[in-house]
Every structure is written in C-alpha cells, then in structure tokens.
Amino acid sequence: MTHFESDYNNGAHAAVLQHLIETNDERTQSYGDDHFSGHARELIRKACHAPESDIYFLAGGTQTNATILDSILEPFEGVLCCETAHINVHESGAVEATGHKVIAVRPLDCKAGSVQDGKLHNADLRAWLDAYFADETAEHMVRPGAVYITFPTELGTLYSLSELQTLRRTCDDFGLLLYVDGARLAYGLAASPDVDLPSLARLADVFYIGGTKCGALCGEAVVFPHGNAPTHMLSRIKRHGALLAKSRVVGVQFEALFTDDLYLNIGRQAIRQAIRLREMFVNDYGFKLYIDSPTNQQFFIIPDADVERLCRKAGFETWCKIDEDQTAFRFVTSWATTDEEIESLNKKQ
Amino acid sequence: MTHFESDYNNGAHAAVLQHLIETNDERTQSYGDDHFSGHARELIRKACHAPESDIYFLAGGTQTNATILDSILEPFEGVLCCETAHINVHESGAVEATGHKVIAVRPLDCKAGSVQDGKLHNADLRAWLDAYFADETAEHMVRPGAVYITFPTELGTLYSLSELQTLRRTCDDFGLLLYVDGARLAYGLAASPDVDLPSLARLADVFYIGGTKCGALCGEAVVFPHGNAPTHMLSRIKRHGALLAKSRVVGVQFEALFTDDLYLNIGRQAIRQAIRLREMFVNDYGFKLYIDSPTNQQFFIIPDADVERLCRKAGFETWCKIDEDQTAFRFVTSWATTDEEIESLNKKQ
Amino acid sequence: MTHFESDYNNGAHAAVLQHLIETNDERTQSYGDDHFSGHARELIRKACHAPESDIYFLAGGTQTNATILDSILEPFEGVLCCETAHINVHESGAVEATGHKVIAVRPLDCKAGSVQDGKLHNADLRAWLDAYFADETAEHMVRPGAVYITFPTELGTLYSLSELQTLRRTCDDFGLLLYVDGARLAYGLAASPDVDLPSLARLADVFYIGGTKCGALCGEAVVFPHGNAPTHMLSRIKRHGALLAKSRVVGVQFEALFTDDLYLNIGRQAIRQAIRLREMFVNDYGFKLYIDSPTNQQFFIIPDADVERLCRKAGFETWCKIDEDQTAFRFVTSWATTDEEIESLNKKQ
Amino acid sequence: MTHFESDYNNGAHAAVLQHLIETNDERTQSYGDDHFSGHARELIRKACHAPESDIYFLAGGTQTNATILDSILEPFEGVLCCETAHINVHESGAVEATGHKVIAVRPLDCKAGSVQDGKLHNADLRAWLDAYFADETAEHMVRPGAVYITFPTELGTLYSLSELQTLRRTCDDFGLLLYVDGARLAYGLAASPDVDLPSLARLADVFYIGGTKCGALCGEAVVFPHGNAPTHMLSRIKRHGALLAKSRVVGVQFEALFTDDLYLNIGRQAIRQAIRLREMFVNDYGFKLYIDSPTNQQFFIIPDADVERLCRKAGFETWCKIDEDQTAFRFVTSWATTDEEIESLNKKQ
Fold this sequence. Notes:
4 copies of one chain form a homotetramer.
Chain A: E1 2-3, H1 14-23, H2 35-48, E2 54-58, H3 61-72, E3 77-82, H4 86-89, H5 94-97, E4 102-105, H6 122-134, E5 143-150, H7 161-174, E6 177-182, H8 185-191, H9 197-203, E7 206-210, E8 220-224, H10 233-239, H11 248-257, H12 262-285, E9 288-291, E10 297-301, H13 304-313, E11 314-315, E12 317-321, E13 327-332, H14 339-343
C-alpha cells in the first residue's frame, strides 16, 4: 500500500537524518545559542540574500503562526487572510487564543459552489481595506495589523511574483505587515517560475521556511528579513511555549536543509512526482482536476468505481463532496515519494 | 436641532432617575448583594415567568457579551453568529480578546449587493453545522459552543417566535447554547407580535435585558432563565472587570424599569415614534426603505437634496453608500423621542 | 444602625446627583465624545496642571486596572507591586486574564506576623530589580514593564511626596512606567500633607482618579498626564468592554466633581469624620490601632466585649485575626458619613 | 573541555537515535494517531500500572505546562506552587499568557537568606488554603484549581513518597488537582528510594514524563493516569500550538525510552555520575554543598581559586551569589555524561 495522505507521514530526508546522527554526541548551547542554529541562520541569510535577517527556529506550524502573529500585532489588531487560510480553518483557533481576530476577507465574487483558488486576491483585500478605512465607526472594529498568506496555499496554488508585489503594495499603502506561512515552502519554490527565497525576503515582513513538511523531523525557521524582529523575541517565543531548550535539534536539521541546495532539491523531487502523478491521472485515467495546483498537493474529481480501485493500492484523502455524483480527492507527494510509489498508481497495475 | 443618531444619546427615563434620587441616601451592600438588585431580580424573574433564573447586573453591552460568552464557552469553543452580529463587527474584538473565535456564518445565498436582513437564518446555520460535524478534520477546527443572536438585530429586524423556536431546535440538535443579546430588547418586545420575555426565557440559555439603550443611565441584566449560570459566576464576572462594586446603581434602575411595566412602555413609546417617523418618510417624503425594520432603528434611502434639507433640522447617521446615486441613512428613536421631535421632521416645516 | 463597612455603600454626592438631574434631558454624543466628558477633561487637566493630559472615563476600578495595564505593557511584560496590592489580591485575576503576570515584590524584611504598611518600599523594589537585571536567565523570566501602587494603599496608608519621587527615580533608572491606582484618591489627597494632583501628574506615567468610591454613582477618570496615552486607546478600551456608550453619565459626574473643588472637599469631609472616629476609638475606648492610617479606612484592634456592643450600633468589617485573643476591624468613612453617624459610636451612647 | 551546564546540551541517547533511524522510512498517521505513539502509550501505561491512562505527546516543557494547566483549570482558577517553581520563574509567563494566575505560596518560615529546598511544603500549602477558604472575600480572589510541583524540583531535590501522599491528601481535602512536572523525571525516579512511576500515577491527577532532558531529541509525554483527560484534548492542545503534525517523531522516541527499561537506566546512569562527581567535590576538593540534592543537578559552594581552575577544564553554571565571599555553582550530569568526563574533574588532573 502506498501513501499519499499527507507530506508529514514520513521521517526525515536521509541527509537531514545523517546530520543529526553525525552531530549527536556533540555538546551544545541551548535556546537558540547553539552553533548549529547559528550556522543554519547564516546559510539561510545567504540563501535569502538577506544578511540582516533575524531568524528563529520553532517546532511546528500552528505554534509558529500564533506566536509570530501575536508578536507582530498590537493587542487590538487582527490579521487579514482569505477564507481557506490555515489560521482561519485548521488551527483550532490558535490565533484567537492569543487574543486576535482572524479577519477572513470575503471574495467580491462569491457565486455559491465556485471552486476557489485558495488565494487572497488583491481586489478583495483592497475592497475590504477601503471599506474599513472609510468607515466612520472603524474605531469600534478590529483594526487590521497584518496580512497572512500561505505559499503555496492550502489548495496547492501559487502566488506569482507579480501577485506578491501587488499584495506588498497594498500592505504598504495601508500600513500593514505581510506575513507568509511557508509550511510547504520547498514545494512552492520548486514549482514557481518566478518566486524564489530572495524575492520572498524582499517582499515579506516576516515568513517561515517549513521544515516539518519539507524534509525535517520537526522544525520551522522564522525569518524577519530586514532585521525587523519585534523586541525581546526570545521572551515572546518562550511565553508561547515555542522556545526549544534543545534548539540544536532544529538547528542541525536546517543546517542540513540549507547545505548543497537540499531544501530546493527536496522541493523539486516532490514536484517531479506530483507532475507524473497528475499526468497519469489526467491523461491515463481521464480524471478532471478539482483545483489546478502546480505543487505537491494534487486534487482530482474521481468517479466512485475508480476510487474503489485506487483505494486498494493507495491511501489518499477525501477532499470534499462537490455534488451528488462528484467527490474531490487529494493526493500529496513529498521528498519521500519514490518512483515506485507513483508507478504503483498506474492504471495498468 | 433634533437628534436621531442613536438611542444612547440621552440620560435616563424620568422614573428611573427619580428612583435613583429617592434611594440615593440609603446605605447598601455591594457587588450585587444590595437589596435593590435583589428585588430587581425578583421582578425580572416574575416578568420572565422564570423563577429559577440566575440574574447578574453588568455595566455595558460589549462587556456583557465578552464576559458571558467567555463564561459559557469552553476555552476551545467559538461562537456562531451572522456576519452583521455586533460581536463580529463593532466590539473591537472583545470576544476574541477572551480567546474565542467568532464564527460568522456565510449566507448560502450571497448575491453581491443584496441587502441582508441582519438575521441568522436557520438554513445557513444548519448548513454550517452539518458541514462542520461531517468534517473529518473537525478536531483541528474551532468547535462551536454557542449561537449568538441579537434581538432586535443590528439592523432593527426581529426574529419571529417561530424563527426563535427553530433556532432553539437547531441548538438542541447540535448541543449548542443559545445566547440572545438584548441591547435594545425593550424595543424588540414592544414591536414583536409574538415574542415576549417569557418566550425568550423559555428559548434562550442566557440573554440580557438592555438597560443603557432602554431607559437607564447604564446597566444590563443578564438572565440565565433555567438557573443554569456557570459556577463561580461572580469571579468570572469580576476577572472581566464587569462586577460593579456599587451594584445598587444598576439594581435601583432595573427595579424602576420592572415596576409598572416601565420597560415595555419605554419600548412602546419608542416604537410609536418610529412608526410615525416611518410613515412620514415613506408617505410624505416618498423615501424608500433600505431595510424594513419594525423597531426603533429605521433605515431609508434618501436623495441628496432631501438629505441637505433634513440635515438642517436633525442629526442622523449615514448608514452606507448603496451605489453612485443612493445612500442609506439611519434614524433612531428612543423612549426620549418626543412628539415635537418627530413633528419637526414634517415636510412642511 | 449606621454603616462603616465600605465607601461604596452609598449613592452619589448631592452635587453630583443634582448635575445628573439637570443634564438628564440633554442629547449628547457618545463613546467619550460628549461635551460633558470634554469639559470634565478640561477641568481635570487644570486641576492637575497638566494641559497635555489624555483622559479617559471608565466604569470601575478592576476594569480600569486590567485595561490600563494591558494597554501600557508589552504582551511579555508583567507589573510589579507589593503583596497587598489590589491587583494581586482582590481582582479575581483580572490582570492575569489579560495575559500579564502580577509580580508581587517580597519585602526584604519578612518577619512572620509583622503588620505591613501596605506600601511598596523602594528598597524592596530596587533589590528585586537589581536581582532581575543581573540575572543571566532574565530572558526566560517575565520582564517588568511597570510599577503599580495604590494611593491611598489598600491599608489606608499614604506615600509621602518624597517616597513617590524615589519610586519615580527607580522607575526611570530601570525604564519602567509608574501607574497609580487612585480608587480612593480624594481621601488620599485630602489627608496628604504634600501630595496633590499636580505632583501626581508630574510623577506618574498614568493614574486614575476614583469616582465610584469618592462621590460618584460610578466612574473612574484615567489620566495620562504627559499626553502619553498608547495609540488607539479607544479600541484598546473597547475590546476590554470598558468603553461606555453613554459616556456622558461619567462625564457629567466628573464635571460636577471637578467644579468648585468638590472632589477635594469630598475627601476632606471623609477625613474629618475619620479623624473624629479615630480619636473617639483611641482616646475614649482605648483601642489600639492595627494600622496607623491617615485616611478614610481606619483599623483597630477591638476586644470581643466591645465588638459585641459596637455591632449593635454599627456595621463594620472584620479585617483579620491577629492571634488567639486579638482581631482587627476596619471602619470606613466617606463623603456620606454624617456627624450623627460618628456620634452614634460614642461610648456613652 | 567537558560540559556540565545542563542536561539538554546533548543529542539523543544512542538507542533512541537508533530507533528513529530504523523507523525513518515508514509512513505513518499524524497528530498522535501513528502506531508508534500508540505503542508508546501502551508501554507507558504498563510502566505506570495505569491501564486507563490518557497519554499525549507534546514537544517541550514550557509548552506542556501552559497547555496542561490551561486545560485542567477553569478560566477563573489559578495554580498553586512554591516560589522556585519553574512556572513561576523561568517560563516567561507562559501560564499567565493563558490567563491564569500562578500563586506562589510563601513559606511560613521565611528567614531572609535561608537556602530553600525548592519543595512545596504541605504546612505552607495548607496554611495558604486554610486562609483562602476562611476569607470572606474569597470570591474576589483567584480561586486555586490545582497544585503544581516538579519532580525532581528545580533545585534537584526530591519529594518522598510520604510527602507526595500528604500533598495528595491536601489536594483531596480542598478539591484541587495535583499536577507533576517531570521534566527530569528519569533522574528523580532513579534517585528516589520510594517513588516510582506507579506511585506517581496513583497520586497525581496528571504528570508528564520528560523526554527532552532525559534521552530524547525532543518530546514530553503527558499522562492522565485515571483516564481523566479533559474533553476535546486534541483541540485544546492544538490551539496552544502544541500538537505535532509529525507525531511519530515523539512516539518513536518514547517507544525506545520505554523499551528495556531505557528510561530508568538513563536515570541511573546520570545519578551514578552525579554521585561520583559529588563525592569527588566533597571529599577530594572539600567543597560544601549549597543544596543537598540527590539527583543529577548538584550545587556546590566553590572558592574563587578552585572556580578558576575548574573553569579551564569544564563548563558549568554560576548559580547564585550567597554573600561577599561565597558563590554557588551548579554541575549537571545526564545520560550522556561519560566516566572520562567525570574523571577529568579529578583534582589531580
């Protein structure tokens, strides 16, 4: 049985695990002061072309989102995002638990049943912002302090460089911070024709480089590319329970991920497999795409008979019921997806 | 100049003020233990036909919503409401400040530009709930613990008894508490053909009787009609800064409001004036209704020329711009609105 | 039966009530924009000799402490105070409810059983601060952002001008804000030989002038004397449920309190009665003082036999059991305490 | 240079690392549903003789304390502990960040300058509880909901079984939950003559088995031994950012730790080295003990000259300055401390 349910159903990439093994007996400092974390920061700064970056290593995505948003927002501020944003849907209210409202922007065009693309559209964002700042009762409403986007999105889609630049301009026009959740960043960077780490570092006020879903056992690297981290970041992180005592665990892993382009290669490998799977499903099986995703999450509308057959070979998630006769399913590849695993889905098998 | 901007631009109803005056020199207990609060509770229990009620007096509406919701919800629970709900729009995130997500239910029918009626529709609510409880990832989402509605709504509209009963059934089906924000309750009860205090007490798990907007200087009475207040309510209220030391101030006012049907008469008086104003605007001026409200908030689409003329006589709020040529305005009556004030708006004046 | 249990067992001072009566029918703006609040702010600025003051009217003391502290502290900061501080003992954790630690400074000299004077001593505060800033692990501890003191203290005692200046210097040396809780300020100012409103305005970063316990039905005036209120104060106040819609209620009362020196006269009246009561108890009855308080809260060690006799004439609080044979009791006077009420305690009656 | 600064300056125990390596390529479920976590729970239940246990794996200690306390306390409840408790000192206010007060119990005997033993003494606890529940103003104070102790304590000391039973009785008498922070549990169990996992499981309402400091790269196992976990624990954990998506990482490590008595052997190894180090320092060097600790944290008063000499061979923490001439230092051993490392401290070297 092969598994395509998620990109966190695996261990660590061999090179990451190897680095943990070879450094295991070394004694280090803690709480982010270990030299592995130090060197990993240097490598990330280089990869981002952002030598002023403040970088922090946290353990997981939900923790990171809540900790960072609570750190960059004033207590009375909320965060804008699209309706499918992870912080709005699948974090059990972690951001609200820190006291902030998650403001999901309604699309201007909201035809019932349309398949959204999972992206925050600038037109929708600006419409919301124009309405808010024109509202005479704005003082009684939650003031937006930041915009949150995921790259790639929860539906696997990507913002183009141009779209990111436009969002950046909107944030600048309205005095908002732009925060990019990069839980699956490796896959996004690998699939994007024009967005790379340096552009992300130029355009975002803060973003995180996902480790857990991209080759690490655990760990996310938060980057404030302009040396603009809030004051007393260590205390802010600690009071959210996000400061790892044994920080070298994540430092070592990111040192490996950012050596010899491993992070990007991890992304490329998964995208390669995703493309193969997609071509197979579209061309051989004739499945329709539910969402046209260029990254490692692929969504298909699959007829019941095929679902039964595929179920016997592979594990994958039911995404959503579209109507009486159609259901969408999600297949996820990762750095760990082998050629054999993709081949096993072949119609002829 | 007459004023129709709000129903909290006035002092207290004469009878309420008189009772404050005549009791002023009496020494009382504090923190809710004073005999005025005690007697006011008895009067409210009688008026609600709910002898088991736990009743608490707080100072203001936003404070009440945040305190009560935080008291009836588990830490991981959120509250469902419609998009125009006060807690979702105009409380600067007071509910989120206590750690809970405000879940605004999207209407199933969301044609851009439609005028909503400010009500939470059962069909929309059930659709959301069915989807939530069918979602295999629900554990990662905010669990709903209560449904919040305002009576009357923020747009002046009313739920019929039948609609309340339907919402009650939905709450029962899904194990949710029903909380009714009665900031303008007097006006709702006066205008409603079928909802009275006893029905509210039967159908809601907790509701509050608004004082500030309905004849008091300040104060709201929270009612748990089935004696179902959470444990240690005084501590819960105090830690939200909502426990008045000089509780007799609100106790005395509610004692007056619930003597000789004053609360309902206050409502009737304002509705009478609202109807007169509405008839005048619709019949004499020919204005179209922006929202068909039966209560003390009235919304009209008024042509620019008329706006200028009315502005010279009265103060009223711009509600929203509908399109290039049309803007909606709100006129609010209260117990304090006199016949002369209504008459001053007469087209012939 | 006369009542000395508290200074919030009464209504409003006659002049305050009168002003509420005479302004009752006027229509005003809301949320602090009413002209009564505006004029009251001007009067307070004058009385404080602080023309740059930002002033906000809230409803009650606990609400004020939690709202203001959460507004002036960074999320990761805590507030220093002495062990008997109201925020540390009697607010049901309202400050912690906003996410901040209340750091009670241990007295260097802590002989068990000693009667404390309810004051934060500079030596104890400096010792704590020196230890904190010398601690290499300080980043893992809660960072202090402000110092909280009450004037008068919870035990009725007063800081001298010199003591306040010393605390000010300490705050400056360590970069801390000084916040003064003036729940009973009128009584403190009346009894203090050297501290007046202008000195408080000079030395504190923010303080509040208590209304509820000093002549008002409800209300406290928060003063940022140097125009140093945090940004977006209205939103910060609103999200704590502390923004009164009908703000004129508190504005009118403070307008009255700051006309014709009423606030100070209210204080002097209560102190006069407190002194009479004290002389009577010490000289005629021979009671020992439990705490040597110069303000309206008086504490005596009273033998059982006398307690019984006094109980028949007056209501007063048991303060604490000192040992097997001795208990301390508290008698509180206020602006409402009449000569007759004091006279009724006379030993000969 | 050898290192004795902490017990989290190392990687993972060889057996734990080996198990991560051999399971790395296996695909698993997530969020705690993976079979490694499942089997690790079984092993822990067995080791605790508590077959009904609810067990959750979190990433780190501070996160665990805040998440668990917020889950077992009502919003208005606080947690009692001793003054040196980790949650009171070194978690940057993580517990307060969730809205709860940390109530540090003052020792009845508080002679300035005495060396405390880091333990919560039952007499002090009962005195506090008796005073609280006898206080008529208790409703205005934070109500205690749980008692927090660390085993071993922050000063390396241990509660005897009898002391734990006494605390248990006190908790039962006052209706409090007993929560044991076992960040260094392996070392405590190894050094304790009478406390083992089954006794902890019998006496505590909830405790955690520390992984990070006891052989794991990361991870802590929270145990509710009586199947008494709060409802919806996954959502509670997730909203605190404490739910690891790749849960198998901690599951695998605890599976290794609870196979072949590894956890206890890890403890014994460290204690062996601690004893050797202690004997060397006390007998050969003649150092006085600052705290008489039986576990892996050892505290000595070391003269300056010796400090200089030791500094050249080893890294260790300055603990605190006792007076002008004496300073205390801490040496920490762990499962990773080798015979050579201890030998290197030999006076003759």
